[in-house]
Description:
The complex is a heterodimer.
Chain A: H1 3-17, H2 23-32, H3 37-49, E1 58-63, H4 80-89, E2 94-96, E3 102-104, E4 107-112, E5 118-123, H5 137-145, E6 163-169, E7 173-178, H6 185-188, E8 216-222, E9 226-231, E10 244-249, H7 253-262, E11 267-268, H8 276-280, E12 285-299, H9 310-318, H10 322-328, E13 334-336, H11 360-370, E14 376-381, H12 389-401, E15 406-411, H13 417-420, E16 430-432, H14 438-445, H15 460-470, H16 475-492, E17 495-508, E18 511-512, H17 522-526, H18 528-531, E19 533-534
Parallel strand pairs in A: 1-10, 1-11, 14-15
Antiparallel strand pairs in A: 2-3, 4-5, 5-7, 6-7, 8-9, 9-10, 11-17, 12-16, 12-17, 13-17, 18-19
Chain B: H1 2-32, H2 37-42, H3 48-58, H4 64-76, H5 90-125, H6 130-144, H7 147-161, H8 177-183, H9 185-210, H10 214-221, H11 226-255, H12 258-264, H13 269-278, H14 282-310
Helix pairs in contact in B: 1-14, 5-9, 5-11, 5-14, 6-9, 7-9, 7-12, 9-11, 9-12, 10-11, 11-14, 12-13, 13-14
Amino acid sequence: MTKKDNDLIRRIAEGAKKGQISRRDFMSYSTAAGMTAAGASSLWATSAHAQDAKRGGTFRWGIHDGNTGDTHDPGTYVTRTMIFLAHTHRSYLTMINGDGSLGPDLADSWEANETASEWTFAINPNASFHSGRKVTANDVVASFNHHRGDDSTSAAKALLSDVEDIVADGDTTVKFILTGGNADLPWLMTDYHFAICPANDDGTIDWQSGDGSGPYKIDSGEFGVQFSLSRHEGWHGEGAYFDKVEMLTLNDPNARQTALVTGDVDAVSQVDVKTMALLQRDPNIQVFNVPSAGAITLPMFCDTAPFDNVDVRNALKLSIDRDEVIEKIMFGAATKGNDFHHSPAQPYWPDDIPQREYDPDQAKSLLKKAGAEGLTVNLSTADSVSAGAVDMAVLYAEHAKAAGITINVVREPNDGYYSDVWLKKPFCLVSWGARPTPDVMYTLAYKADAAWNESHWQNERFNELLLQAKAELDDSLRAEMYREMAMLARNDGGTVIPFFNNFVYGARGNVGTPDNLAASWESDGGRAASRWWFTD
Amino acid sequence: MNDLLLLVLKRLGFGLLTLLVVSILIFFAVELLPGDVAEAVLGQGATPETVQAMRDQLGLDRPAVVRYLEWLGGAVTGDFGVSAVSGEPVINAIGDRFVNTLFLAAYAAVIAVPFAILLGIVVALLRNSVFDRVANVLTLTSISSPEFFLGYILILYLSVKLPLFPAIASLSSDMSLGELLHRTFLPALTLVLVVTAHMMRMTRAAIINLLASPYIEMARLKGVPPWKVIVRHALPNAWAPIINVVALNLAYLITGVVLVEVVFVYPGIGQALVDAVSKRDFPVVQASSLIFAATFILLNLAADVGAIITNPRLRHPK
C-alpha cells in the first residue's frame, strides 16, 4: 500500500462514518485502494458503528487483577489491570479487531518480502504522544529493543528471539529483519508487552512517566488501586467515546459483582461463572460470554511410562466426558476442546476435525491393545490452577472408572505450583492464557525443543510443518498445514484438552458495545474504554 | 513519676529488641516461600535467561544473611530501601496506605470505644435483664462472625437492598471530608461490630466484679442511686482492665483489617502487605510487618501506662 492509498482509505472511512457510503461501495473502494477484504470488512465495522455511538461520560471500569507492585514497564506487565491500562493509554503496532481479524493501530500498513523474513511497517503519520510529540519510527525501534539484548529482563524476550535487527527508515517506516521467515509477525505485534513508549536520546525508552500514544492519557493513579484517565484528543484511531475513564482494581469477586449490581462501576472485566446465571436475570446488567483461546490442558510425559504408549494416551483422552466437565465445573462458560491446542478464537482454526467424545468402551479396547488394562495413574492438581481445578480432576477420575482406569487425584500446594509441579510431574493440570496465533502456542509448548514442551512430545512431521507454516504467506496453504498439525496433536500428542475457557464479563445496561467482541482478552480485548460507549 | 518514666524507657528498649527479632523472622519466612521476586514478577513469561538477568540486577544471588544485614544496616539509619518490584522507595509505596489505614482505624475507634463503654455501663446497670441478654447475644454474634461475612451482610442490606452507602470504598484525593466519611462508613461499621463485643463485655465484667466490694455496699447503704454507684464509685476502679482491652482492640483495628480492606476494596496497608507477599517483595513486607509490630508494642505500652495512671496502687509494686 502506498501512502496515497492510505489517505484514500482514511477518506473512505470518514465517508462511512458519516453514513455517505454503503457497505458494498465501501468494500469495493477500499479493496481497490489496496486493502485486503478482511481488512476492509473490519474497517467498515469500526467506522459504521461510530454512527450510533455517542460521545461523553465517565466510564468506571472494575478490573479483576491488579497489584500494588505493578509498574509501567512494558517488559514486566503481568496483571490484567496493567494490560488493560496499556491498551488504553499506549498503542501497539497492530490490534486484534472485534471479529478476530488483524487491524491497524499505530502501523497503517505492513508488508513482507517473499520469504517473510523481512517486514516493513508504515507508522500512521497522525499518531502523537500525550506530551504532544509525534510518534516516530525511532520510538518504535527503542520500544522493541527494550525487550531485546542480554540484560533485558523483559518477559517477552523469547518472542523476539528470531528478530535479528530492527531499523528505522525515515520517520514513518520500520523494518524488522528476521533470522527466518515468520508470517505471523504482524500478529505478534499485538502481544501486550509490545506497547510503544517514547524513546530517550540514548535509545532507551521512557516508560517511567506513563506517557503513551493511546486513546486516553493518565491524569492520576496509584498501582493496584485505581487510575483516572481523560481522552487524548489527538488520538490516531477510531472510537474513544467516553470523556473520562476510571479504572479500579477490584480483586475480590464479590466486591466486583456488588459494584456492578449497585452501579458503582459501569463494567467489570470478570464475572464469577458460579453467579453468572443469577446476574443475567438482572435487567440492568449485560453479561458477555466470549469464547477465548485460553485453555485447560492435562499434559502427559510422552517419554515416561505408561504415557509412552500412544494407545494409553488416547485412552485417557477418550475417558473424559467434556460435556459434563463444562456443565458442572465451568457452568457452561467454555468451548469444548478436541485435544489440539488451537482454539476457534484463533486464526486458521480447522472446523472440519471430528470432535472427540467420551467413549469408555473404545478406551478399554485401546488399553487392551496396549496391554495396560486396569491402568492406574496419578494426576497432580491444585485449586490455584483455575476455579474448580480439583473438582474437575475428581470428576475426570469418576469418568475414567468406566474405562477401567484409576486416576489418583494428587492435591499439590497452591503456592509455587508452576515451579514445583508443572514440567516436573508426568501428568498434571495446567491453565494457559490466550495466545494470538496457533504458531505462537505450538512453538511455546509443543515444539520438540521448547523449554515449556509440557508433554515431552516429539513428532517429526509436526515439527517440520510448524517451521514450514511459520514462513508461509499463502493463507490457504497455511490453514491446511495447521489442520494437519491439529490432527497429529489430536491423535498422537500427549495432551488432553477438555475445554477452552470463555471470558465472562459484564456491563451495566446503558453501556453500548459493538456486535463483535474481541476474544484476545476480557472486556473486548482489553479495549473496552476506546470501543464502548454510553447509550443514554 | 520517675518510676513511670523508667518503666516507659525500659519497655521501649524491649520493644526495639522485639522489632529486631520480628524483622529476622519475617526475612527468613519470606526466604522460605517457594519462588523469588524475579519469578513472581515475570510470571508466565519467566525464562531461565530473564530470571537470571533480573536476579543479577536485584542482587538476589548473594547469600540471604548478607542481604539481611544490608537491609538492617539501612533500616537503623531510617532507610528502609526500595521496593524490589517497582524500584520506588518503600516509604512512598506504603506511606499513603498507612495513612488510609490509620484513618479507617480512627473512624471506627471514635464510634466503637465510646459506644462499647457506654453499652458496657448500661448492661452492668441492667445486668441479667432482657436488655443485657439481647445486647450480649447481638455483640457476641457479631464478634463470632468472620469480618468478611459481616461486611457482606452490611453490603447486602445497606447498599444493595437499601442504596444508602456505596459498596466499594474507593478513595480519590479531591473528596470532601463528608464524602470520605460517607464512602468509608460501611468498612468502619464492620470494624465497629467486630471490636465492640470485647470492650463491652470487659467493661461489664470489670464493673460487676467490683459491685461485691464493701465500699460499694457502703455507697448503696447511704442511698446513692444505682447509676451513680456505677459511674462514680465502681468505674474509676475498673479502668485498668478496660484500658487494656481498648488498647488491644485499637491495635487490632490497624493490623487486623486485611479482610475488611479486601471486601470493600479499601486501599489500606493490609492490602499492600498481601500484594507484597505474593510478589516476594521483601522490603515492603518487612516495613509493613514492622509497622504492625510497632503498633502492638506501642499500644500495649500505652495500655500499661494508662492503667498505672488510673490506679496509683500499681505505681508502688510490693
